[in-house]
Amino acid sequence: MSDNWTTVQDEVQVKFDTDGDVFTGVLNSMDVQGTIPQAHFTGTGEYKGENYFNNLGRDLQRKLDKVPLGSEVRITRTGQLDTGYDTPMTLYKVDHRPAPASATTSKR
Known about the structure:
Layout: E1 11-13, E2 22-31, E3 38-43, E4 51-55, H1 58-64, E5 71-81, E6 89-98
Parallel strand pairs: 1-4
Antiparallel strand pairs: 2-3, 2-5, 3-4, 5-6
């Protein structure tokens, strides 16, 4: 007999440690109101089948804000910029296109 419980799939954190690191996925939602802004994705390509999140830095947040939810994104770490703070700002290139028809999205 079924007990009617459904397990929510865990999310894996996407980290861009090295210039040239690339991630592809469908941008499902962005949580930017909290202490740590986050973006949430469903992986595509080599990341297909998993759910992911990334703690957004300023450059990546600014670029993803311009991408329609439900789009497939390719995020590439391109370098770092000295901004006068203790740690440099990480820079990204963000490409996007319409996502596969199976994508689901939620509000930002």
